[in-house]
C-alpha cells in the first residue's frame, strides 16, 4: 500500500490512467449534438429563412468537465484509496494468549457500545494473529478460559456490565482464578480509582505485558435526593474537573393520567474545574410524591440514576382532637406531642373531619374523639377501605363514652371495658406499668424499649376471641397497650393511652416517634439507621441494571433491613427499590458518600483511549460519484439536445441533475403519506363525498359508483355543491360519519351487516345521516311486498332505528329544495317513494303554502326506481344506461338528476326550504 | 368490408364520446356569462312584456289585453318586446395545425377553438338565435337539439395541415364567426371575407395561437415540422430565426386586422394560455354589438 498523507492506495499504478484525460478532452470536444425534431405549426412562417452564421457545434465546457470528473473518479476509485490507513507495522504484534480484563461496572456502562467496538477490533486482530483470548469481568469473576478469539467475538453482545463495582472481595476472587501460564493482559478500565487495582495489576504484570484501555469520556454520578427545608436537593458529581458543562437532569414519574412521563427537566451547570454541582428543586408536594426516578439525561449509567423512596414522599396526616379549646395549656393539648413528632417528616392537615376527608390524607389521627356522626363515620369507613390509616388515642372522653362498649365499633379495633384503669397514682395501688418486649409478629418488633417509659392510666380492652391477634404492643402484665385491626385495605390502630403525657410517659420518649414511623404515620427520615431496620425484611420491587434501566425485580429474594443499608451491592443486593411493610426504601448505586476519583496508573503501563481514526475505504464512494456524474451527463446531454420534453427541458434537467448529484446516503424518504383507511378518510372529509354501500355484487357496485359520479357531476355543474369522486363504503370497516348520504342498492343476495355495523349505522342515522334505499324493482308489487328485493330490504332495515314512514307528501320539503318536483323517477317511474312520516299534529296553517313538516332530514328514503342507473355516467360524461326512448327518455333522466340534486340539497340544507314558509311571518314581526 | 365498417364505427364512437365532455364544458363556460340585453328594445314579436298602449284604430279586438283594460274605461293592448332570431354561421378550423399544444397543461388550439365556438353557440341559442355552420353541412337552426348537433359536428378532425375557410352557403345579412389559427395561406381567407362582405355578412375572426407560436423559445439545431408532416424546415441555430419569425407573425396579424377592418369584421387574437372565458366574453360582446 502506498500512503500519501491521510490517503493510501492499494493499486497506485492505476493512477497513471489520469494521464489519458487530456486526450479524452480533445476527442470528446469535437462531437456535435444531433438536431432536434420539433413539431411546430408556425413552420410555414419559417420557410425560406436562412441561417446567418454557421455555428460550430461543440460540446459545452461544463459537460466536458463533468465527463472528465466522472472518468477521473473511476480511475481513482479503481486505484483503491483508503482514508486513515492503519499501518500495522508500527503496532506491537503480540504473541501468546491474551487475557481481557473488564471492570464491567456501572461507570463503564455509559460508553459500553464503544467499549465493545474496541474489544471487537482487538479480537479481530487477535483472530488474525491466532492468539487465544480469555475474558474476565471483575464485577462477576469467573475462571478465564482461553479460546479462539472468534468464539469470543460471537458472544460479544452478551457481555454486559453489572450495576455494582468490583469490590475487594471480588478482586481477591479474581486473583485466585488467574491461571498460572503466561499471558498478556488488556485491561478495560472504567476509570475510577480503587484500592484493589494495585495488587491485581502487580499480579497481572507477573504474567506478561499489561495494556490499559480507558475512556476519556465524562462520567457523571447522581447522589440520592435529600429533602431539606422544603426543597429537594440533588448533588451531581463528575469524574474529572473540566470546562464549564451543562447537563440536563430529568425527573420521571407518572403523570396525572397514570402514564409514564418526564415530570421535570432542569439544566445543571458544572462550573469550570468543579467536580460537583448542586440542584435545588422546589417542588409541590403532590408532584414530589409522583417522581419515581431522577436521572442525568444521556448518561446511560446506573450511577446517573437515583431512585427516591418514601423519603421524598411526605405523608399527609390530619390531626383531630376532641377538645381543643384550652388555650395556653399547650403541653396538655392532646395534639402537642403528635405535632412535635410529626412536623419534621409529614405534612399536617388541620380542620374538621368533613374538610379533611376530601383531601384524602394518608393518616387521620383522632386524639380522644369518642363519637362520630353517621356521615363522618361512613366517610371514614370508605376512606379506610381505600387504604387509609386511622390512628386513635384514648383519653377521658373515650373512657367515659359508650363507644365500642357492648359491641365492637367498626372504627375501633377492640371492645372497651367501662372506665379504664389507673395504676401507680396517688389514689391507687401498684406501680406504674412498663412495656413488654414486642412480639415477633408486631410491627414494632426490634425496637428497643427505654426503661423510663411508664403507663399510669389506660383504657382496657374487653377480652374477646380476636383480641390476641389484634394486640401489637402490651404492658408487662399482658394488658394490651396498642391494638390494631385492618379494614379493607386500611387499618385502625388504637393507643390505649392519651396522646399527651397525662396517662403515660410514652409520648415523651423516642420510642413514640419510632412507633409512629413503624406504623407509617410519619415518614422515614432520609437516612434511617440500622437500628430502626433490625428484624425487617425488604422485598425488591424494581432493580436497576448497569445502564440505569429499571426492570421488574421478578422473584429476587428479600433482603434483611440491616444489610439493605450498608452491605456492598452485588448479585444478592442489587440496586433498586425495596418494599417493606407499608413503605419502600431505595438502594442507589451512588450514595451521598460516593466520591468519583480518576484511576491513576503507573508510568510503565500504556493507556489507550477509545478514539481512533477508522480505516475508511473510499473506492465505493468514488465509483458511486462517477455513476452519479455519468447519469447527470446522460440527462444533461438529453437536455442539451432538447429531448427532455419541450421548453421546460432546462428546469426539469436541473431538477433531475440536482437529484442525481445528491449522494445516496443523503437521500431521505419523504414523510410517509397517510395510507389506507386514513387516506380515504382524509379524502372523504376534505370534500362533500357521496357514498354507496358495497353490496359485494361487482356489477351493482360499479353501477352505483357510476350513478353517484353522474350525480356528482350534475351537482358540480348546476349547484354550489362540488362533490369529490364518490366512494364505496364497507359497512364493517369504514367510518360513516364523513358522508352526508349513503346510497344503498338492495339485492336479495347481499349479506346482512354485523351487529357492530348496525350500531354504526344507527349512530349515523341519529347524527343526521341519510340512507337512500333502492330496491331497483320498480316497486311493481307495492312497497315491501312480494319482490325478493323488498323482502331483503325488510330484513336489512329491521335492526335500524327508522321512524314511521309515509309516501312523500305533496308538500314535503324534498319536492322543493332545489327544483320543484312532484315525481322522483329513476330508470323506472314509480311514484312510491317513502320518507319519514310527518308528525300527526302537522297542519296546514292559514296563509302558508306548505305544512311545517319534520324539523330535520328524513333519515331514510326508500324507493325502487333504480336511480343509480339513471344517473350513471362514464368518465367522459356519457350516460351508461338507456332510459326510456328518444328525447322523452332524456327528459326522464333529467328529472332523475333533479331528484338527485333535490335529495343532496335536502341532506345538506335540512329544513331550510321548509323554514322559508316562515319568512312572511318573520318580516311581519320585524315591521317590514 | 364489414371490418372497415366496424373500424369506422369504432372510431366514430370514440370521436362521438368526446362531444358530451366538450358540450358540458361549453355549457359550463356559457353558464358563467349572464345573459343580458339581447332584446331589441322596441316593441315587436317576442315573449317578454314591453308596454301597455291604448288601443288604436287598426288593432284587432283579439289584441286587447282584457285584464288591463278592465281596470279602467280605456282599452289597452299588451305589446311585447321585439325579438328576432338572427342566423349565426360558424366556421371552426379542423386542420391538423390546430391539434398542436406546446405543454401538457395547455389545451390544443383546436380544443380551445371548439370550446369557445360551442360556448358561444350555446349562449346564442339560449338567446334565441339560430346557429349553424358555413357551407351546407348544418344550416342554422335554434333549440337545444341544435346544440347537440353542433357539438357532434365539431368533434370531427380534418386531414390537411392548414384548412381553408368554407365560404359557401352564406345567408345574406347573417353573422359569422371564423375560428382558426390563420397560419395557412391567407388568400382564401381574404376571398371568403370579401364574399361575406358582398352579402352583407359581418362577423368575427378569432385567431387562436399557442404561446410558443408567439414567443418562439427555441434554440440550437432544430428541424421544425408541421403537425401533418407536410412542411419542414431545418435550421442550425433556431435562436437566430426568432426576430424574423416574429416579424412575419406580426405582419400576418396586421394583415388579418386590416382585412377585417375593410370588410367590417372584428378580429381577436386569443392564446390558449389565456382563460377561455375572456375570449367568450369578447366574442359574445362583439356579436351582440352588431344587433344594437
From TrEMBL, chain A:
<dbReference type="InterPro" id="IPR024163">
    <property type="entry name" value="Aerotolerance_reg_N"/>
</dbReference>
<keyword id="KW-0812">Transmembrane</keyword>
<protein>
    <submittedName>
        <fullName>N-terminal double-transmembrane domain-containing protein</fullName>
    </submittedName>
</protein>
<dbReference type="Pfam" id="PF07584">
    <property type="entry name" value="BatA"/>
</dbReference>
<feature type="transmembrane region" description="Helical">
    <location>
        <begin position="12"/>
        <end position="31"/>
    </location>
</feature>
<keyword id="KW-0472">Membrane</keyword>
<dbReference type="InterPro" id="IPR025297">
    <property type="entry name" value="DUF4159"/>
</dbReference>
<feature type="transmembrane region" description="Helical">
    <location>
        <begin position="61"/>
        <end position="83"/>
    </location>
</feature>
<feature type="domain" description="Aerotolerance regulator N-terminal">
    <location>
        <begin position="8"/>
        <end position="81"/>
    </location>
</feature>
<dbReference type="InterPro" id="IPR029062">
    <property type="entry name" value="Class_I_gatase-like"/>
</dbReference>
<dbReference type="Pfam" id="PF13709">
    <property type="entry name" value="DUF4159"/>
</dbReference>
<dbReference type="InterPro" id="IPR011933">
    <property type="entry name" value="Double_TM_dom"/>
</dbReference>
<keyword id="KW-1133">Transmembrane helix</keyword>
<feature type="domain" description="DUF4159">
    <location>
        <begin position="689"/>
        <end position="908"/>
    </location>
</feature>
Automatic annotation (TrEMBL), chain B:
<protein>
    <recommendedName>
        <fullName>DUF58 domain-containing protein</fullName>
    </recommendedName>
</protein>
<dbReference type="Pfam" id="PF01882">
    <property type="entry name" value="DUF58"/>
</dbReference>
<feature type="domain" description="DUF58">
    <location>
        <begin position="51"/>
        <end position="252"/>
    </location>
</feature>
<dbReference type="InterPro" id="IPR002881">
    <property type="entry name" value="DUF58"/>
</dbReference>
Amino acid at each position: 500500500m502506498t500512503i500519501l498523507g491521510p490517503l493510501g492506495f492499494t493499486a497506485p499504478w492505476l493512477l497513471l490512467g489520469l494521464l489519458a484525460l487530456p486526450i479524452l478532452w480533445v476527442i470528446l470536444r469535437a462531437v456535435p449534438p444531433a438536431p432536434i425534431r420539433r413539431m411546430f405549426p408556425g413552420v410555414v412562417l419559417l420557410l425560406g429563412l436562412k441561417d446567418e452564421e454557421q455555428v460550430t457545434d461543440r460540446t459545452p465546457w461544463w459537460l466536458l468537465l463533468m465527463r472528465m470528473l466522472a472518468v477521473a473518479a473511476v480511475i481513482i476509485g479503481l486505484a483503491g484509496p483508503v482514508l486513515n490507513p492503519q499501518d500495522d507495522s508500527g503496532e506491537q504484534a503480540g504473541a501468546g494468549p491474551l487475557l481481557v480484563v473488564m471492570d464491567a461496572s456501572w461507570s463503564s456502562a455509559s460508553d459500553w457500545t464503544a467499549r465493545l467496538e474496541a474489544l471487537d477490533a482487538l479480537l479481530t486482530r487477535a483472530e488474525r494473529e491466532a492468539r487465544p483470548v480469555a475474558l474476565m469481568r471483575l464485577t462477576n469473576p469467573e475462571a478465564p478460559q482461553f479460546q479462539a478469539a472468534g468464539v469470543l467475538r460471537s458472544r460479544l453482545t452478551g457481555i454486559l456490565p453489572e450495576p455494582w463495582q468490583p469490590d475487594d472481595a471480588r478482586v481477591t476472587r479474581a486473583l485466585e482464578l488467574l491461571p498460572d501460564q503466561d499471558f498478556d493482559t488488556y485491561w478495560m478500565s472504567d476509570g475510577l480509582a480503587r484500592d484493589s487495582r494495585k495488587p491485581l495489576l502487580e499480579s497481572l504484570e507477573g504474567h506478561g505485558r499489561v495494556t490499559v484501555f480507558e475512556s476519556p469520556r465524562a462520567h457523571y454520578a447522581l447522589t440520592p435526593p435529600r429533602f431539606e427545608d422544603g426543597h429537594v436537593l440533588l448533588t451531581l458529581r463528575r469524574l474529572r474537573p473540566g470546562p464549564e458543562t451543562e447537563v440536563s437532569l430529568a425527573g420521571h414519574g407518572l403523570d396525572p393520567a397514570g402514564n409514564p412521563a418526564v415530570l421535570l427537566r432542569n439544566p445543571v451547570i458544572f462550573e469550570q474545574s468543579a467536580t460537583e454541582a448542586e440542584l435545588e428543586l422546589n417542588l409541590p408536594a403532590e408532584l414530589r410524591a409522583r417522581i419515581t426516578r431522577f436521572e442525568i439525561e444521556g448518561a446511560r449509567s446506573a450511577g446517573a440514576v437515583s431512585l427516591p423512596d418514601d423519603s421524598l414522599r411526605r405523608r399527609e396526616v390530619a390531626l383531630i382532637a376532641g377538645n381543643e379549646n384550652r388555650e395556653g395549656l399547650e403541653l396538655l393539648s392532646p395534639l402537642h406531642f403528635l405535632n412535635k413528632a410529626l412536623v419534621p417528616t409529614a405534612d399536617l392537615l388541620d380542620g374538621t373531619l368533613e374538610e379533611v376527608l376530601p383531601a384524602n390524607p394518608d393518616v387521620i389521627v383522632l386524639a380522644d374523639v369518642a363519637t362520630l356522626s353517621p356521615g363522618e363515620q361512613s366517610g371514614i369507613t370508605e376512606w379506610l377501605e381505600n387504604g387509609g390509616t386511622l390512628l386513635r388515642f384514648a383519653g377521658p372522653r373515650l373512657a367515659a363514652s359508650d363507644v365500642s362498649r357492648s359491641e365492637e365499633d367498626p372504627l375501633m379495633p377492640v371492645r372497651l371495658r367501662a372506665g379504664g384503669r389507673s395504676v401507680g397514682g396517688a389514689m391507687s395501688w401498684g406501680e406504674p406499668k412498663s412495656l413488654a418486649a414486642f412480639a415477633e409478629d408486631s410491627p414494632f418488633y426490634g425496637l428497643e424499649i427505654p426503661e423510663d417509659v411508664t403507663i399510669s392510666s389506660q383504657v382496657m380492652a374487653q377480652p374477646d376471641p380476636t383480641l390476641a391477634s389484634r394486640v401489637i404492643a402490651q404492658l408487662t402484665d399482658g394488658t394490651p397497650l396498642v391494638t390494631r385491626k385492618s379494614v379493607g385495605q386500611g387499618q385502625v390502630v388504637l393507643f390505649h393511652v392519651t396522646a399527651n403525657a397525662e396517662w403515660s410517659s410514652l409520648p415523651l420518649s423516642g420510642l413514640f416517634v419510632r412507633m409512629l414511623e413503624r406504623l407509617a404515620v410519619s415518614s422515614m427520615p432520609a437516612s434511617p439507621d440500622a437500628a430502626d431496620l433490625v428484624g425487617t425484611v425488604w422485598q425488591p420491587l424494581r432493580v436497576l441494571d448497569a445502564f440505569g434501566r429499571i426492570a421488574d425485580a421478578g422473584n429476587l429474594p428479600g433482603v434483611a433491613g440491616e444489610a439493605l443499608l450498608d452491605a456492598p451491592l452485588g448479585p444478592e443486593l442489587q440496586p433498586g427499590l425495596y418494599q417493606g411493610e407499608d413503605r419502600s426504601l431505595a438502594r442507589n448505586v451512588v450514595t451521598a458518600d460516593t466520591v468519583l476519583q480518576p484511576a491513576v496508573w503507573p508510568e510503565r503501563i500504556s493507556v489507550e483511549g477509545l478514539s481512533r481514526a477508522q480505516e475508511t475505504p473510499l473506492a465505493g464512494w468514488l465509483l458511486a460519484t462517477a455513476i452519479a456524474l455519468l447519469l447527470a451527463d446522460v440527462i444533461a446531454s438529453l437536455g442539451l439536445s432538447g429531448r427532455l420534453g419541450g421548453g421546460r427541458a432546462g428546469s426539469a434537467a436541473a431538477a433531475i441533475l440536482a437529484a442525481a448529484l445528491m449522494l445516496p446516503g443523503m437521500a431521505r424518504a419523504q414523510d410517509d403519506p397517510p395510507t389506507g383507511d386514513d387516506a380515504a378518510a382524509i379524502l372523504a372529509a376534505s370534500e362533500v363525498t357521496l357514498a354507496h354501500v358495497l353490496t359485494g355484487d361487482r356489477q351493482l357496485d360499479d353501477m352505483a359508483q357510476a350513478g353517484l359520479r353522474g350525480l356528482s357531476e350534475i351537482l358540480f355543474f348546476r349547484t354550489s355543491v362540488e362533490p369529490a369522486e364518490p366512494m364505496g363504503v364497507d359497512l364493517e370497516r369504514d367510518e360513516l360519519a364523513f358522508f352526508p348520504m349513503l346510497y344503498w342498492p338492495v339485492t336479495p343476495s347481499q349479506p346482512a351487516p354485523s351487529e357492530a355495523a348496525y350500531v354504526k349505522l344507527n349512530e349515523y342515522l341519529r347524527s343526521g345521516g341519510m340512507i337512500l334505499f333502492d330496491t331497483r324493482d320498480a316497486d311493481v308489487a307495492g312497497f315491501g311486498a312480494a319482490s325478493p328485493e323488498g323482502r331483503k330490504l325488510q330484513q336489512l332495515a329491521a335492526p335500524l332505528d327508522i321512524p314511521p314512514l309515509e309516501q312523500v307528501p305533496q308538500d314535503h320539503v324534498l319536492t322543493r329544495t332545489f327544483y320543484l318536483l312532484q315525481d322522483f323517477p329513476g330508470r323506472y317511474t314509480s311514484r312510491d317513494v317513502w320518507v319519514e312520516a310527518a308528525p300527526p299534529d302537522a297542519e296546514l296553517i292559514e296563509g302558508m303554502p306548505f305544512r311545517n313538516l319534520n324539523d330535520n332530514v328524513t333519515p331514510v328514503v326508500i324507493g325502487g326506481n333504480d336511480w343509480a342507473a339513471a344517473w350513471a355516467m362514464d368518465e367522459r360524461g356519457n350516460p351508461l344506461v338507456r332510459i326510456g326512448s328518444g328525447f322523452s327518455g332524456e327528459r326522464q333522466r333529467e328529472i332523475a338528476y333533479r331528484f338527485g340534486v333535490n335529495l343532496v340539497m335536502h341532506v345538506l340544507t335540512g329544513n331550510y326550504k321548509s323554514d322559508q314558509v316562515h319568512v312572511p311571518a318573520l318580516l311581519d314581526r320585524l315591521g317590514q | 368490408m364489414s371490418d372497415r365498417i366496424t373500424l369506422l364505427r369504432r372510431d366514430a364512437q370514440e370521436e362521438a364520446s368526446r362531444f358530451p365532455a366538450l358540450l358540458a364544458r361549453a355549457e359550463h363556460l356559457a353558464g358563467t356569462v349572464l345573459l343580458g340585453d339581447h332584446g331589441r328594445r322596441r316593441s315587436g314579436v317576442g315573449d317578454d312584456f314591453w308596454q301597455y298602449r291604448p288601443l288604436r284604430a287598426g288593432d284587432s279586438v283579439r289584441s286587447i289585453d282584457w285584464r288591463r283594460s278592465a281596470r279602467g274605461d280605456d282599452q289597452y293592448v299588451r305589446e311585447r318586446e321585439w325579438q328576432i332570431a338572427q342566423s349565426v354561421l360558424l366556421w371552426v378550423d379542423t386542420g391538423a395545425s390546430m391539434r398542436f399544444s406546446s405543454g401538457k397543461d395547455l389545451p390544443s388550439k383546436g380544443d380551445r377553438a371548439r370550446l369557445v365556438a360551442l360556448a358561444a353557440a350555446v349562449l346564442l341559442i339560449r338567446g334565441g338565435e339560430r346557429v349553424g355552420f358555413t357551407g351546407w353541412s348544418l344550416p342554422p337552426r335554434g333549440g337545444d337539439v341544435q346544440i347537440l348537433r353542433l357539438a357532434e359536428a365539431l368533434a370531427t378532425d380534418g386531414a390537411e395541415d392548414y384548412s381553408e375557410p368554407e365560404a359557401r352557403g352564406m345567408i345574406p345579412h347573417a353573422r359569422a364567426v371564423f375560428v382558426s389559427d390563420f397560419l395557412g395561406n391567407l388568400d382564401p381567407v381574404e376571398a371568403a371575407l370579401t364574399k361575406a362582405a358582398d352579402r352583407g355578412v359581418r362577423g368575427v375572426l378569432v385567431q387562436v395561437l399557442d404561446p410558443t407560436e408567439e414567443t418562439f423559445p427555441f434554440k440550437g439545431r432544430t428541424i421544425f415540422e408541421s403537425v401533418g408532416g407536410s412542411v419542414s424546415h431545418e435550421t442550425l441555430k433556431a435562436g437566430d430565426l426568432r426576430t424574423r419569425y416574429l416579424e412575419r407573425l406580426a405582419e400576418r396579424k396586421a394583415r388579418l386586422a386590416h382585412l377585417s377592418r375593410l370588410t367590417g369584421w372584428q378580429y381577436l387574437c386569443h392564446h390558449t394560455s389565456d382563460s377561455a372565458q375572456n375570449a367568450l366574453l369578447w366574442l359574445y360582446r362583439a356579436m351582440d354589438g352588431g344587433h344594437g
